[in-house]
């Protein structure tokens, strides 16, 4: 017979002998209860066969360890776990007194015996019978470890019952596995694994988590009374829970049993035991509850969005269920993009301008241009399920495809930025003129899209809410002139703006058909005034592309994932692509910067740094926006009615008062943006936008023929023949040309215009501003005496400059 067979047979005989002793004694050995009736007929031969048929090795999965979600600076923002455990890698990380305490009470001959300590078990049996209660455990630490492993690996309720059933089959199986474990690992390794896996009650698994939870300490710094308490708890974690009123006394009694046993074994002196027994069992002021999950995070909405992205990462498992289990048990360190300081500043701005009980809601996302890093995500309604306190679990910053994502709301005139950008890309000059009448009638007309022409609904007659009249692209953007942008989008077509918006990530965030979420927005003639539902995250990230000179990055929340050993786990990074030529983006920045200057809809939001942005108000004021950026950060603020009925904001309360007629992107959403961005940029070096290329300012234009001095009809005919759309202005201008003839055009002849573009014809009033004034008539009246009562009129008074002619003598 081989030596190994002899060894195994010897182990089997020892086991069967011990079982026989247990049965003959008629006792229930602590930790090794064998029913007499169950063992009847279960002979030595059958026990041997059962033992030998069991696996030769125990498969041990790593114990579940909590994962940590961290901010960009490394500070923890959430703990994800089913069992709160911090795994230790060495016994040196555990105080010697803790090891002595657990060995003293559970298996004092641990380093002397093999997998089964028959002598120790019988001694424990006799002591327990003498004391009338269980004072010492009968199972070795190795056996207890095996039981914990089997219980940990039981996936179903049925498997869990089998792992704890008081049957001889389970006991024999545990013994066989214990033999395998003793062969596979050293005693120190087994003790470390046991202390990492054991349940120490009140949600603390493993000795390190227990030390932190109960004592605000570490396993390495545990004191004698602390170690004795933890060693006592493992026997019955719920019964000996020292944080409960009923368990506190039982925990102290059990701790004192451990201390006396340590004294009995001469591990500690009688004085040490007496002093420790006098120590209070626990200081509740030091008990630390570990926040579990995103709901306990300081940034719950952001955290849940991060978790949703983790569930989509194939590197973490085959499916979302497997990934969820892995995330909560693998001890991952998940680094995210959130910046606590920026998050704080953004939330402070929201809190200062809103109230949790408001009927309207504000949401804001901050993105870093050129990286896609989502630096902050805040909203006015706090996290929770108490509607009376204004709480919600909806994340109003993100798309509906994510479980708690609200799905956004209509963007209003913030969509004009994409029409502006597409126009610049197509060579439209910044001085492009359109006669933006107060109201235009588009019914029956057609707009070009990528798929052909689409008709305008009959009767569609949009109006302006700001200024009207002939104007250029810069002024129309600064004042958010609806009819200008509708006519511009008709001129350039809607294919360019819609394609660009899609490239920048502005897509459907919520639709009746869930399959369309993430797909391009529907294209209508009113595209430039806002269609579909988009989110603050989408808009902040899209405008960040302009700030990054045309470099677009997908939003990035998770920057790295490492496992418990420090090994990197693949995680999708930001996909960055140059979607606009830098010089075209510079042109967009120049025009959107006019929004922040005097006369612009965002002029009151200028906080002293180069900035650009766009206001937005939807039809019937159901939502208002401000999306703006500097070269450093981009942010979008949206305000809307989130409660399903989509009431006009004029009817709702915001910041504790009814809004009424004072609803606008610049006046309602804008102040939140300004307060946040001012705080976010404090102390940062100032950066400016790149100077615009003169070719972008000029655009891709063709020459305008000379029409100065022509009659209106002749000028119109000439301009049409050259491929332009001529329009005669209603007012006449000072000129050296004869009255009623063409004084000049806008754009000027030297500036040119795009093919098919509008050229405004200004007629002369016959008053030459450069003609010297006529001398006063000669009179025979005596010269007046005293001071004149009126001032002479200066030449050029009343002269009005044409658009984009800053060097003329305008008042």
TrEMBL record:
<dbReference type="Pfam" id="PF00905">
    <property type="entry name" value="Transpeptidase"/>
</dbReference>
<dbReference type="InterPro" id="IPR005543">
    <property type="entry name" value="PASTA_dom"/>
</dbReference>
<keyword id="KW-0378">Hydrolase</keyword>
<keyword id="KW-0511">Multifunctional enzyme</keyword>
<feature type="region of interest" description="Disordered">
    <location>
        <begin position="726"/>
        <end position="751"/>
    </location>
</feature>
<feature type="region of interest" description="Disordered">
    <location>
        <begin position="763"/>
        <end position="811"/>
    </location>
</feature>
<dbReference type="Pfam" id="PF03793">
    <property type="entry name" value="PASTA"/>
</dbReference>
<dbReference type="InterPro" id="IPR001264">
    <property type="entry name" value="Glyco_trans_51"/>
</dbReference>
<dbReference type="InterPro" id="IPR012338">
    <property type="entry name" value="Beta-lactam/transpept-like"/>
</dbReference>
<keyword id="KW-0808">Transferase</keyword>
<dbReference type="Pfam" id="PF00912">
    <property type="entry name" value="Transgly"/>
</dbReference>
<keyword id="KW-0645">Protease</keyword>
<dbReference type="InterPro" id="IPR001460">
    <property type="entry name" value="PCN-bd_Tpept"/>
</dbReference>
<dbReference type="InterPro" id="IPR036950">
    <property type="entry name" value="PBP_transglycosylase"/>
</dbReference>
<feature type="compositionally biased region" description="Low complexity">
    <location>
        <begin position="787"/>
        <end position="800"/>
    </location>
</feature>
<protein>
    <submittedName>
        <fullName>Penicillin-binding protein</fullName>
    </submittedName>
</protein>
<feature type="domain" description="PASTA">
    <location>
        <begin position="698"/>
        <end position="765"/>
    </location>
</feature>
<dbReference type="InterPro" id="IPR023346">
    <property type="entry name" value="Lysozyme-like_dom_sf"/>
</dbReference>
<keyword id="KW-0328">Glycosyltransferase</keyword>
<feature type="compositionally biased region" description="Pro residues">
    <location>
        <begin position="771"/>
        <end position="786"/>
    </location>
</feature>
<keyword id="KW-0121">Carboxypeptidase</keyword>
<dbReference type="InterPro" id="IPR050396">
    <property type="entry name" value="Glycosyltr_51/Transpeptidase"/>
</dbReference>
């Amino acid at each position: 017979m081989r030596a190994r067979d002899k060894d195994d047979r010897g182990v089997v005989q020892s086991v069967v002998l011990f079982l026989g002793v247990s049965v003959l004694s008629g006792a229930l050995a602590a930790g090794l209860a064998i029913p007499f009736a169950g063992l009847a007929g279960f002979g030595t031969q059958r026990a041997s066969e059962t033992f030998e048929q069991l696996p030769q090795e125990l498969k041990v999965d790593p114990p579940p360890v909590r994962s940590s979600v961290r901010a960009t600076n490394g500070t923890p923002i959430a703990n994800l776990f089913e069992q709160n455990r911090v795994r230790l890698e060495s016994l040196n990380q555990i105080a010697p007194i803790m090891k002595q305490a657990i060995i003293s009470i559970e298996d004092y001959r641990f380093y002397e015996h093999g997998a089964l300590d028959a002598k120790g078990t019988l001694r424990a049996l006799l002591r327990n019978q003498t004391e009338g209660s269980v004072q010492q455990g009968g199972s070795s630490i190795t056996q207890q470890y095996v039981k914990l492993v089997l219980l940990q690996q039981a996936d179903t309720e049925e498997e869990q019952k089998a792992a704890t059933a008081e049957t001889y089959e389970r006991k024999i199986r545990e013994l066989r596995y214990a033999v395998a474990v003793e062969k596979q690992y050293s005693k120190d390794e087994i003790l470390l694994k046991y202390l990492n896996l054991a349940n120490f009650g009140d949600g603390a698994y493993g000795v390190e988590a227990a030390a932190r939870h109960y004592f605000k300490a570490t396993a390495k710094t545990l004191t004698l009374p602390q170690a004795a308490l933890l060693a006592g708890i493992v026997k019955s974690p719920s019964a000996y829970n020292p944080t409960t009123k009923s368990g506190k006394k039982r925990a102290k009694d059990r701790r004192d049993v451990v201390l006396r046993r340590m004294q009995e074994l001469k591990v500690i002196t009688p004085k040490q035991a007496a002093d420790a027994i006098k120590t209070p069992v626990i200081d509740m002021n030091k008990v630390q509850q570990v926040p579990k999950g995103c709901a306990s995070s300081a940034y719950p909405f952001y955290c849940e969005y991060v978790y949703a992205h983790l569930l989509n990462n194939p590197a973490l498992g085959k499916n979302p269920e497997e990934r969820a289990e892995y995330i909560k048990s693998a001890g991952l360190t998940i680094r995210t993009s959130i910046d606590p300081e920026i998050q704080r500043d953004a939330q402070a701005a929201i809190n200062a301008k809103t109230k949790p009980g408001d009927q309207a809601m504000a949401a804001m996302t901050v993105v870093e241009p050129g990286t896609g890093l989502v630096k902050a995500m805040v909203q006015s309604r706090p996290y929770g399920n108490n509607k009376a306190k204004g709480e919600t679990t909806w994340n109003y910053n993100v798309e509906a495809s994510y479980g708690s994502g609200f799905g956004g709301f209509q963007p209003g005139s913030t969509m004009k930025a994409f029409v502006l950008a597409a126009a610049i890309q197509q060579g439209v000059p910044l001085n492009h003129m359109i006669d933006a009448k107060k109201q235009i009638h588009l019914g029956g007309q057609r707009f070009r899209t990528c798929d052909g022409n689409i008709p305008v609904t009959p009767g569609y007659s949009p109006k302006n809410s700001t200024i009207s009249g002939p104007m250029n692209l810069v002024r129309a953007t600064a004042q958010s002139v609806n009819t200008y942008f509708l006519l511009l989008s008709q001129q350039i077509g809607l294919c360019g703006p819609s394609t660009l918006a899609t490239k920048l990530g502005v897509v459907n965030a919520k639709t009746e058909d869930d399959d369309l979420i993430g797909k391009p927005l529907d294209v209508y003639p009113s595209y430039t005034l806002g269609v579909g539902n988009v989110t603050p995250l989408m808009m902040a990230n899209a405008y960040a592309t302009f700030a990054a000179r045309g470099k677009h990055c997908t939003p990035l929340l998770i920057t790295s994932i490492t496992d418990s050993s420090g090994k990197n786990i693949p995680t999708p990074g930001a996909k960055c692509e140059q979607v606009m030529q830098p010089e075209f983006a510079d042109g967009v920045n120049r025009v959107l910067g006019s929004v922040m200057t005097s006369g612009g809809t965002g002029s009151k939001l200028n906080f002293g740094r180069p900035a650009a942005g766009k206001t937005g108000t939807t039809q019937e004021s159901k939502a208002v926006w401000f999306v703006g950026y500097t070269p450093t950060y981009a942010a979008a603020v949206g305000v809307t009615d989130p409660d399903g009925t989509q009431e006009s904001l004029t009817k709702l309360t915001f910041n504790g008062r009814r809004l009424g007629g004072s609803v606008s992107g610049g006046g309602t959403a804008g102040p939140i943006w300004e307060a946040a961005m001012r705080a976010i940029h404090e102390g940062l070096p100032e950066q400016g936008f790149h100077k615009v290329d003169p070719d972008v300012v000029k655009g891709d234009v063709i020459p305008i023929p000379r029409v100065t001095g022509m009659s209106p009809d002749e000028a119109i005919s000439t301009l049409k023949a050259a491929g332009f759309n001529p329009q005669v202005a209603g007012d006449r201008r000072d000129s050296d040309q004869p009255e009623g003839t063409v004084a000049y055009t806008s754009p000027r002849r030297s500036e040119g215009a795009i093919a098919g573009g509008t050229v405004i014809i200004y007629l002369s009033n016959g008053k030459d501003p450069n003609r010297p004034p006529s001398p006063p008539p000669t009179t025979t009246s005596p010269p007046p005496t005293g001071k004149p009562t009126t001032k002479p009129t200066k030449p050029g008074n009343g002269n009005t400059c044409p658009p984009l002619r800053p060097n003329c003598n305008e008042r």
